[in-house]
């Protein structure tokens, strides 16, 4: 059964004077939280990593990725930087049918909106946690049930788990 991991980037530094939002790096806490979430994902096989090119998302992926086997494909796509949830869903639907596990590393509000949409038909209490807060380094895991990536929709996904460094640590 295909699996989708939705990961919000870890805690980023406030921009320095004149620094672009795109160039904001992780804070020490962000690096710690990314490593922690990487340990949670240890042993997972990821076929495709879709990562926003912003400094904070690439750093988050680099740290998380140290704990898992390298994916078959790592795609750092400019279109994922601060994209809409509709754009992220369209991108996920383009995933080839032979891919069994995808991790998307991006930004809010997109990541929370995608997770909320996919969790619409899942267990209410778990979905409510996503609605209440999708903090930095939050991870939602969905099983795709009843169709491939091109049919990604709430009636075809099951929210298996939602976690944050705070709720786990």
**What fold name stands as the CATH topology?**
Rossmann fold
Taking pLDDT < 50 over at least 5 consecutive residues as the criterion, the unreliable ranges are none
Q: Count helical runs.
A: 6
Fraction of helical residues: 25-40%
The profile of the biggest β sheet is: 6 strands, mixed
Structural class: alpha/beta
Overall pLDDT, averaged? 94
CATH superfamily caption:
Phosphoglycerate mutase-like
CATH architecture: 3-Layer(aba) Sandwich
Strand order, largest beta sheet: 3-2-4-1-5-6
Rg, alpha carbons: 15 Å
CATH class: Alpha Beta
Terminal-residue CA separation: 29 Å
Helices and strands, in order, run as: EHEHEHEHHEEH
How many DSSP E strands? 6
Structurally, the number of domains stands at 1
Apparent shape: globular
Q: What proportion strand?
A: 15-25%
Task: Outline the structure in words.
It is a single chain. The chain has one domain (3-11, 23-168): 3-Layer(aba) Sandwich (Rossmann fold), CATH 3.40.50. It is an alpha/beta fold and 169 residues long. The radius of gyration is 15 Å and the shape is globular. The chain has helices at residues 28-41, 55-65, 85-93, 110-118, 124-132, 165-168; strands at 3-8, 48-51, 73-76, 101-106, 139-144, 157-163. The two termini are 29 Å apart. It has a 6-stranded mixed beta sheet, sandwiched between helices.
Keywords:
single chain; 169 residues; alpha/beta; 6 helices; globular
SSE map:
Elements: E1 3-8, H1 28-41, E2 48-51, H2 55-65, E3 73-76, H3 85-93, E4 101-106, H4 110-118, H5 124-132, E5 139-144, E6 157-163, H6 165-168
Helix pairs in contact: 1-2, 3-4
